[in-house]
Design goal:
Largest sheet: 7 strands, mixed
Order of helices and strands: EEEEEEEEEEE
Radius of gyration: 13 Å
Number of strands: 11
């Protein structure tokens, strides 16, 4: 059974940090482009970070609003992708979801999705 399971969300104060995990089962994370998306209240779902399939060099991209603050990484042995989030602000509040697209050079959000985890940045 294919599953993407996010964890690590919660309530954090502005300026704080969180690390999200996307544990992948049933497929090999390295063979997929794995993306982190954010669904903020009242806004469209947006791609936050992406790491391409290994055949495309595991290329990493970020949306402009998180560059320098967020970092995506993949642990092949654990079949897990992480999103380290630093210097969080209220604008980062939302549900964070991970996606997987087979053999892709970018994150299209077509093949597989997790259910998401809530991140709330508030004092």
């Amino acid at each position: 059974q294919i599953r993407l399971a996010e964890s690590g969300g919660g309530l954090v104060q502005p300026g704080g940090s969180l690390r999200l995990s996307c544990v992948v089962s049933g497929i090999t994370a390295d063979l997929h482009a794995i993306g982190w998306f954010r669904q903020a209240p009242g806004k469209k779902r947006e791609e936050i970070a992406c790491i391409s399939a290994i055949r495309h060099g595991a290329t990493i991209t970020y949306t402009d609003s998180v560059k320098g603050r967020f970092s995506i990484s993949r642990d092949s042995a654990k079949n897990t992708v992480y999103l380290q989030m630093n210097s969080l602000s209220s604008e980062d509040t939302g549900v964070y979801l991970c996606s997987a697209d087979y053999s892709a050079s970018a994150c299209y959000g077509i093949d597989y999705w997790g259910e998401g985890v809530l991140v709330t940045v508030s004092s």
